[in-house]
């Protein structure tokens, strides 16, 4: 053999060796394909906040697209597919008016979820990780589970599997005719379908199907509470966390769904159809954008939190998500009993009142015509005589003899916090403590790190810990800092929240041991002392929970419920 031939022989072997080495390395770096119960999916790599390589499967369809004749109906199971589905990007958001741009966005085909995991199991002997399923907020009319707001970076530093989801919003998700035509709660039934998907498939992503924690903020927190009540959700989760929201909040439930549906139909030109089935078919013929924008016209007054299309009681019909009023179900002890974390921020109402007090016309309406506009703003408008009585009580409790103007902004903040969030959450904790419910852990987030969920919308914002201000410490997004600076109180607060939440998902106890990060044992809530964890610069157990303010709204809501009963009897 010549020297030249021998030289090319060695070169050929070396090239083959390099090729084999490259292909083996590529296999190791390739994102594993997961064979779900509906078909194979291919994801992508991401990195956690601390640089951990994670696997992301985004835009996984969990139900049939609710289009055409499926609009206003309960979700139907997704059909199987044969090819490998690309799940490297998030799916469409559900139709809505975008909170940041005030423009219509979204598509009816929006029932997608996202899964983030540190690893895909290879063998059967691997330990499964706890699963955390996030339900986004947005007053049941806005938002999505997308990573633009809810990036997995912080949670995936821990050994958990994170799932986020979309569900139908506004009239498209919560319209109800009050009968079998459209019973209602389709957005919550979407969530049930997503939870069924998680239960069936999460082991394929390294998740433990008997350690599933559902958690959410605001309307997502109320959704979590609704799942505690729903017979359709039984067995689909094992623990729950509600951040600043409850099914007992006044914006989270309505008894007037058919009236709102008829109003929307009138605005869309569908009321002449008369029969509910014909009326709904007519509304199916309108594009989602028109339905969303028409719903916005149904608000009575300015910055009120009124959303006409929210959860309803469906009665005892088959496949009802919520058979009865949530307060009645709680009193009757009809609950999915799991360990539960719930809480509020210390200044919930700053967000809502700031929008009002900065509006030149609406702030003057409240100042000079309190008895006309406060019932609209707080949503208790029934009849003038009773409304005036309630308005007088609210005025005397918060404003005393002072003129109601912007100089009393702190009193507006308290009023809005107590009415819209605090009372319903505190009442829920108290009622659970009387119903032989498993452990409830209550918190108040009082740490103000200067990072607000709302700073990009409100600009120069007042001091305080607003509604949803825990989110920047829990999720990375375009709105929040990419990372907390090492050694700062902000980073410490983020680490504490993530560790307590993931401890709870893993073990059912947010503080199984005292550590350098978790310096205090979080004791379960007790209705007598109202003990709770104050999450401030330090962790401290405290007693009493805005008692005087909560008791005041006990009396006001009791009056409102009495008015509703009288109205129903007439």
How would you describe the overall organization of this protein?
Helices cover 36% and strands 14% of the residues. With 570 residues, it is α/β, with parallel strands linked by helices. A hairpin with a 2-residue loop joins β1 and β2. The protein is globular.
In short:
This protein is an alpha/beta fold and 570 residues long.
Low-confidence stretches: 1-28
Q: If you compute it from the alpha carbons, what radius of gyration comes out, rounded to the nearest whole angstrom?
A: 26 Å
What proportion strand? 5-15%
- For the record, give the distance between the C-alpha atoms at the N and C termini, rounded to a whole number: 109 Å
Number of helical stretches of at least 4 residues:
16
- Kindly state the percentage of residues in helix: 25-40%
Mean pLDDT: 89
Number of strands: 16
Major β-sheet strand ordering? 3-4-8-10-9-11-12-13-14-15-16
Class of secondary structure makeup: alpha/beta
The coarse silhouette is: globular
Q: For the report, how would you describe the main beta sheet?
A: 11 strands, mixed
């Amino acid at each position: 053999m010549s020297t030249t031939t021998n030289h090319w022989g060695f070169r050929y072997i070396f090239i083959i060796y390099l090729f084999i080495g490259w292909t083996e390395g590529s296999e190791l770096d390739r994102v594993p394909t997961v064979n779900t119960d509906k078909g194979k999916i291919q994801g992508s790599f991401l990195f956690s906040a601390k640089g951990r390589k994670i696997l992301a499967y985004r835009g996984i369809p969990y139900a049939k697209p609710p289009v055409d004749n499926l609009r206003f109906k309960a979700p139907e199971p997704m059909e199987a597919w044969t090819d490998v589905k690309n799940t490297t990007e998030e799916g469409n958001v559900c139709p809505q008016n975008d909170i940041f741009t005030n423009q219509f966005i979204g598509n009816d085909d929006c029932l997608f979820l996202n899964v983030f995991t540190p690893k895909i199991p290879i063998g059967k002997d691997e330990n499964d990780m706890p699963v955390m399923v996030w339900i986004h907020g947005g007053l049941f009319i806005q938002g999505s589970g997308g990573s633009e707001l809810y990036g997995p970076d912080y949670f995936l530093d821990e050994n958990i599997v994170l799932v986020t989801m979309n569900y139908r919003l506004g009239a498209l998700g919560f319209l109800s005719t009050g009968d079998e035509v459209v019973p209602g709660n389709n957005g919550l039934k979407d969530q049930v379908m997503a939870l069924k998907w998680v239960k069936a498939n999460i082991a394929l992503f390294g998740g433990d199907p008997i350690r599933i924690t559902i958690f959410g903020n605001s309307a997502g927190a109320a959704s979590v509470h609704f799942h505690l009540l729903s017979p359709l959700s039984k067995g689909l989760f094992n623990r729950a966390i509600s951040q600043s929201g409850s099914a007992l909040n006044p914006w989270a439930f309505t008894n007037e769904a058919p009236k709102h549906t008829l109003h929307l139909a009138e605005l869309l030109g569908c009321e002449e159809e008369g029969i509910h089935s014909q009326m709904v078919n007519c509304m199916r013929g309108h594009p989602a954008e028109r339905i969303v924008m028409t719903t916005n016209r149904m608000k009575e007054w300015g910055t009120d939190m009124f959303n006409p299309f929210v959860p309803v009681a469906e009665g005892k019909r088959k496949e009802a998500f919520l058979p009865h009023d949530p307060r009645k179900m709680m009193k009757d002890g009809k609950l999915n009993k799991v360990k539960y974390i719930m809480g509020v921020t210390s200044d919930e109402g700053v967000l809502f009142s700031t929008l009002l007090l900065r509006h030149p016309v609406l702030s003057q309406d409240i100042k000079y015509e309190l008895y006309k506009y406060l019932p609209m703003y707080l949503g208790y408008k029934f009849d003038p005589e009773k409304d005036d009585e309630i308005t007088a009580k609210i005025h005397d409790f918060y404003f005393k003899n002072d003129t109601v103007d912007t100089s009393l902004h702190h009193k507006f903040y308290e009023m809005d916090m107590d009415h819209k969030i605090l009372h319903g959450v505190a009442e829920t904790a108290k009622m659970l403590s009387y119903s032989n419910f498993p452990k409830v852990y209550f918190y108040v987030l009082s740490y103000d790190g200067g990072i607000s969920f709302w700073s990009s919308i409100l600009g120069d914002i007042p001091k305080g810990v607003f509604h949803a201000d825990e989110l920047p410490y829990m999720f990375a997004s375009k709105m929040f800092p990419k990372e907390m600076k090492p050694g700062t109180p902000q980073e410490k607060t983020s680490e504490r929240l993530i560790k307590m939440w993931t401890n709870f998902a893993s073990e059912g106890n947010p503080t199984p041991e005292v550590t350098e990060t978790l310096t205090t044992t979080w004791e379960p809530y007790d209705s007598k002392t109202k003990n709770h964890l104050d999450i401030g610069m330090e962790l401290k157990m405290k007693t009493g929970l805005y008692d005087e303010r909560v008791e005041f709204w006990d009396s006001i809501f009791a009056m409102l419920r009495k008015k509703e009963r009288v109205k129903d009897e007439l």
